[in-house]
Amino acid sequence: METKLTEIAERIQALRDICGFSVAEMAEATNLTAEQYAEYESGTKDFSFTFLYLCAEKFGVDMVELLTGENPHLTGYTVVRGGRGLPIKRREGFEYNHLAANFRAKQAEPFLVRAPYFEAAQTQPIPMSTHEGQEFDYVLSGTMKFAHDGHFEVLNAGDSVYYDSGTPHGMIAIGGDCMFLAVVLKGKV
Question: Cys-Cys crosslink for 85: which of 31, 90, 97, 171, Cβ 3.0 to 4.6 Å?
């Protein structure tokens, strides 16, 4: 199920209007300029995970509601079969599958992520992001170069990293594609 950029942008704009937030307030909440925020809300720029996460936090809704327009409804448990989950493509080439999209009132956002290997990325600065909370990443296959506030680690299959995600962080695949489990824990640190 691939979500259309314009549909997400329309939901974000509608929620901003319903909540009574100005573009300037949303820009501040998402760490962007008003012009950058307006690009996202108009549907002319693809969304980063961080942008969606911060919008959902500001609106007080589940991120899945922004992506699908539906409220998660399960409370006891949810099962996601292998190879499934809510697909989210929010960083060039990266594929995210949300593994608890139907669970209501989540305290964490679990994703299965495929980070593609790009030769050009090996000599470029790693794209960084920030969002409230903490994050746990567990490498399932391949190798990841992880960056956190000026520190770098190479993680192989079986390695993990737990960190404050309010600090600039990012990762790239090295030596080939990398699959990892990412669990974003909500809340302020």
Answer: 97
Domains of the chain: 5-68 (1.10.260.40), 107-185 (2.60.120.10)
**Could you give the CA distance from residue 153 to residue 68 in angstroms, rounded to a whole number?**
35
The count of other CB atoms within 10 Å of the CB of residue 56 is 20
How confident is the prediction along the chain (189 residues), in pLDDT tens digits per residue? 345 888 999 999 999 999 999 999 999 999 899 999 999 999 888 887 788 888 998 999 988 899 888 888 888 899 999 988 988 766 778 888 999 999 988 999 999 999 999 999 999 999 998 888 899 999 999 999 999 999 999 999 999 999 999 899 999 999 999 999 999 998 754
Residues forming beta bridges with residue 129, ordered by sequence position: 169
pTM of the predicted structure, to 2 decimals: 0.81
Q: Rounded to the nearest 5 degrees, what angle is found at the Cα of 66, between the Cα atoms of 64 and 71? A: 50
Question: Which phi and psi angles does 66 have, rounded to 5°?
Answer: -65, -40
